[in-house]
């Protein structure tokens, strides 16, 4: 399984959180599954998974959404990595990022967690922070609103108009990262939007 990748969409379970900023990672993984006509099924690692291919003849990808809350995402991620025999360098974690403006995507491998408890827990469970990340910008809250409340709020009406494009672009970034590598994906997705 040398060419299998695990793509994790971080978020919180249940309808209450489905369209909140914190769940944008799961929206991206949903988009990747929808593009391939795949449905998620339960996995014993306490996650929902869809096994598919990037495209015919290309890398196999396991799309996954942990059933746990964001701050304890590491257990399911490590369980899936062990089950499929996938090393950290082929585990792509897609997550929301406060420190990036809304409608912006950044990619990196490794580094700190930037206060993101889901990323922190995944790094702890994997025993390394050195995994690829697709960071989907949600921006900082306006005024004095607490960041913890902001991430659990639904997207604003204005943001919801742009959200499908942002999710599609982030899904494109995942596909390019897997197929062409980090640098090619960064060069395309870090460029200013026109």
UniProtKB/TrEMBL annotation:
GO BP term, pick one: rescue of stalled ribosome
Catalytic residue list: 22 (proton acceptor)
SUPFAM superfamilies (alphabetical): Peptidyl-tRNA hydrolase-like
Listed CDD domains: PTH
Compartment annotation: Cytoplasm
EC annotation from Swiss-Prot or TrEMBL: 3.1.1.29
Catalyzed chemical reaction(s): an N-acyl-L-alpha-aminoacyl-tRNA + H2O = an N-acyl-L-amino acid + a tRNA + H(+)
Gene3D superfamilies in UniProt: Peptidyl-tRNA hydrolase (3.40.50.1470)
Main location group: cytoplasm
Residues flagged as site, Stabilizes the basic form of H active site to accept a proton: 96
Tagged with keyword tRNA-binding: yes
UniProt GO MF annotations: peptidyl-tRNA hydrolase activity; tRNA binding
InterPro entries: Pept_tRNA_hydro, Pept_tRNA_hydro_CS, Pept_tRNA_hydro_sf
Site (Discriminates between blocked and unblocked aminoacyl-tRNA): 12
Keywords: Cytoplasm, Hydrolase, RNA-binding, tRNA-binding
Cellular component terms per the entry's GO annotation: cytoplasm
Binding site for tRNA: 17, 69, 71, 117
Family: Belongs to the PTH family.
Oligomer status and interactors: Monomer.
PANTHER family given in the database record: PEPTIDYL-TRNA HYDROLASE
NCBIfam families xrefs: pth
Entry function: Catalyzes the release of premature peptidyl moieties from peptidyl-tRNA molecules trapped in stalled 50S ribosomal subunits, and thus maintains levels of free tRNAs and 50S ribosomes.
Protein name: Peptidyl-tRNA hydrolase
Gene that produces this protein: pth
